[in-house]
Amino acid sequence: MTDASNTTHTLMQRFHDAFEAHRPDDLDELIGEGCVLENTTPAPDGARYEGREACLTFWKGVAFNADLAFELEDIWASDDRGIIRWQLRWGKRDADRVRGVNIMRVRDGKIVEGMGYVKG
């Protein structure tokens, strides 16, 4: 794995950990200027957030929510691209979950693009 891929993988792990541990402030140092986020909802295209502050505000709200539980499935990284596969649970029943993926882009050691997708 290249140095860039290692850096991206570490960044993806830190990003996911902030959600899994409900530590929204950990996101502050991970998100870059000019960040663009496309959320998983509403269908069909998801809401779009532009700019560091807009992305941070959205992601921090999700990370803060103790009723949501993210479980990591896999992280893949190559150069400036990263993919995080996860499950999101909001209840105890098997139906109270969804599997999804974030496709991320990194620039200068910060996340500058996040595209979220879920299995429908």
From TrEMBL:
Residues in the signal sequence: none
SUPFAM superfamilies, A to Z: NTF2-like
Annotated Gene3D superfamilies: 3.10.450.50
Domain SnoaL-like: 13-113
Domain of life: Bacteria
Name assigned to this protein: SnoaL-like domain-containing protein
